[in-house]
Amino acid sequence: MDIEIILNEAVVKAVKELYGQEPVENSIQFQKTRKDFEGDFTLVVFPLLRISKKPPKQTAEEIGAELKKNIQQISDFNVIKGFLNLSVDNSFWINYLNDISKDEKYGFITEKEDPKTILIEYSSPNTNKPLHLGHIRNNLLGYSVANILQSQGDKIYKVNLVNDRGIHICKSMLAWQKWGDEITPVKAGKKGDHLVGDFYVRFDQEYKKEIKELVEGGMGEEEAKQNAPLILEAQEMLRKWEAKDPEVISLWREMNNWVLEGFDVTYKNLGVDFDKIYFESETYKLGKELVLEGLSKNIFFKKEDGSVWADLSEEGLDQKILLRSDGTSVYMTQDLGTAQQRMEDYNADQGIYVVGNEQNYHFQVLKLILGKLGFDWSGSLHHLSYGMVELPEGKMKSREGTVVDADDLLEEMTTTADEMSRELGKLDDYSDEERNEIIKTIGLGALKYFILKVDPKKTMTFDPKESIDFNGNTGPFIQYTFARIQSLLRKANEKDIQLPGTLNPEISISSKELQLIKQIHNYPEVLKEAAKAYSPAQVANYVYDLAKEFNQFYHDHPILSEEDRAVSGYRLFLSKQVGNIIESGMKLLGIDVPERM
Questions:
Q1: 3-state DSSP: the chain helix, strand, coil percent, rounded to 5?
Q2: Where are the domains of the chain?
Q3: What is 3-88's CATH topology?
Q4: Through-space distance between the first and last CA atoms of the chain, rounded to whole angstroms
Q5: pTM of the model as a whole
Q6: Architecture of domain 412-588
Q7: pLDDT digit string (tens) for 70-112?
Q8: What is the pLDDT, as a whole number, of residue 314?
């Protein structure tokens, strides 16, 4: 049984014994003892004073004495103002280490009485350009949050909504028709998403030329933007698409397939996947039906030009367009349809959208409109809003000087990992094949860790060189620590140093070793809190702290050179448990840890 449960039950019994009254639920509050005080667990005494009718110090002293008398695991206690600090006997920590060594899923909740079904949507790319740096943070966050939520015993479904229709898609299609000269990804020798992205850029370039000409001819800029021939052609193409024009649909399918094949390569290289992919082209119709139904029930209203709107002024917001005057859909329309479709597919208890903070307003409106339409589950939708990620100027190749391509970044990470490892001479003795595999693992791990260690809400700057430093709070430092532990275990086996199956609870341990075991004890609570906050950063920084603590222990305590074989075996046992947790935590982040490095 967990020590905190034991302590909780013991305090209830002690209070009843001392003061003749059982404490009310939630009045017993334990927390980890602060590092500057002696002890392991701290009881906040103040909520119990109305029962004891005594000053805080006296109440804490009396409860502490009662606990020490009745719980063998309590070795000592001290009182600081209204706080009772309890020290747990070393034998408890050794037994705890013994217990978790037999638990392959340590820290995870494997059986939950009432597991939730949770949908988590991430990636959500447009099929008019390749994935970029922002998509990388999005995908890494979504994939990792899904893993962390799953560790808490809930049923998780990872979904992707591909925005494969709309005016932006028509822009790429129109540019290909005009200037593509029947080019294909095979003919061009490039990924399909990159090729289509080139035509999206071409449209923008030609469109700006037309605007400039119209403005020079005396037209206002806004009017020029709306009346430039290219944008009018793109709008007409969108109307033809919604009318299922065979030629437009055929081109749309072909170019979308090019992009989707390109995305699949990037997803595979990034190490993320999905349980189901939804397409806006399939859900927007359901969204239109919902809007028209809402219009018939006077939930929405129609303007003179025929466009349909939601009035959110009572909720302190403005009016939101749901259908354009020509009857075509907007993003909100398809999001309404997708939300309903997914709930019908999964009957989920919760839906999480991993989308950047520039869309905060959009998701606020989405929930309100779904509520107006009568969907009770609208309150269970959560927008996991994250900050933008940027690069220092000049560090990476970027398209148009602003957008950093995901494939370029992944390639650059491998190159940087190679340069750093050669500089440090860490992989000199490896075969080319093994070296290349490790370099990819280091480069990708560096990228993922550097992004995930930052609180999702914060805007961050990603520096490739800094991320691959083998010292400090980086992925390679943690990977190297894991590889060091595996090397220890291999060398111990070669020297015939036995790894004990169970430790003797009476074995003598140092303060540094005790601190390491206590950090291991924190792992389940870290996962619980990370799941509650949807924050992989909490797992990432915990794993770093554990790795850092282990390296200090490794530096101060001989392991293989220790003459006492029992002590050597115990330290190996402890090292192995640290390695298991590093591997577990990094796996939740989607990061591999190499056996050798």
A1: 60, 10, 30
A2: 3-88, 166-274, 412-588
A3: Gyrase A; domain 2 (3.30.1360)
A4: 38
A5: 0.92
A6: Orthogonal Bundle (1.10)
A7: 998 999 999 998 899 999 999 999 999 999 999 999 999 999 9
A8: 93
